[in-house]
């Protein structure tokens, strides 16, 4: 399944910070990318890899969709249950548009959860997996259950506008904590996230970096899962955080901790109103 459905006429839902009309319906990720390229013809970040742009219709991340769909509906784990009763914020089993509205506060846990944290929670509570089970412990790489599920579920929100809720005080607090972390310097090299993404024109070797305040560049930057051509694997938002922290020489961040959730909350809020490319293809 490389297409979710034939696209209906798009319905404008919101206007992004940079002026892109985000859609209230699913869109093919390549179509989302092409519209961003047309909207920002001078963006060195968006246009930096002609090869990746050409490969986007055949994105290897799409190969994970069928396996992810099977894993979602398959009865698995000690409880022999599927994930159809998992609530990602829009009701049990509702996936359309759910990914772009995370992180969010969940009443059943009393905490703000990012996508991966919520998925693992459901796999434990509904299916009975434990931290020692490979289905939960293996988080990274195209061969992991987590990555296959993440790619399938995220794909159902492709083209939807990033819209993480900020109605609950804990959601606002988490977003604000993420902003502090984004600009907080630390580690052996005294780096922060803003050192790379706080202004335009930054580069690491041959890679042009996205500017956080350019929402059309930023929506591509935070559109994970994505196939990383240089690693030949599909990666998640959480994996990208791990890589950034390592590059900044900061202390490592454990999975399912508030630091991940806070940074993702701030990331996604900075892309608010812009359409998500799910899955994406990156260098």
UniProtKB/TrEMBL annotation:
Signal peptide as annotated in the record: 1-24
Biological process GO terms, please? sulfur oxidation
Task: Enumerate the subcellular locations listed in this protein's record, separating them with semicolons.
Answer: Periplasm
GO cellular component assignments? cytochrome complex; periplasmic space
Primary location: periplasm
Q: What is its EC number?
A: 2.8.5.2
Q: What class of enzyme is it?
A: transferase
SUPFAM superfamilies linked to this entry: Cytochrome c
Q: Which reaction does it catalyse?
A: S-sulfanyl-L-cysteinyl-[SoxY protein] + thiosulfate + 2 Fe(III)-[cytochrome c] = S-(2-sulfodisulfanyl)-L-cysteinyl-[SoxY protein] + 2 Fe(II)-[cytochrome c] + 2 H(+); L-cysteinyl-[SoxY protein] + thiosulfate + 2 Fe(III)-[cytochrome c] = S-sulfosulfanyl-L-cysteinyl-[SoxY protein] + 2 Fe(II)-[cytochrome c] + 2 H(+)
Pfam families, per database record: SoxA-TsdA_cyt-c
Q: Which UniProt keywords apply?
A: Electron transport, Heme, Iron, Metal-binding, Periplasm, Signal, Transferase, Transport
Looking at the record, the residues that make up the Cytochrome c domain are 67-160
Heme as a keyword of this entry, yes or no, is yes
Which is one GO molecular function term here? electron transfer activity
How is the subunit organization of this protein annotated in UniProt? Heterodimer of SoxA and SoxX.
| Family indicated by similarity | Belongs to the SoxA family.
> What is the name of this protein?
L-cysteine S-thiosulfotransferase subunit SoxA
Lineage of the organism: Bacteria, Pseudomonadati, Pseudomonadota, Gammaproteobacteria, Chromatiales
Q: Which gene encodes it?
A: soxA1
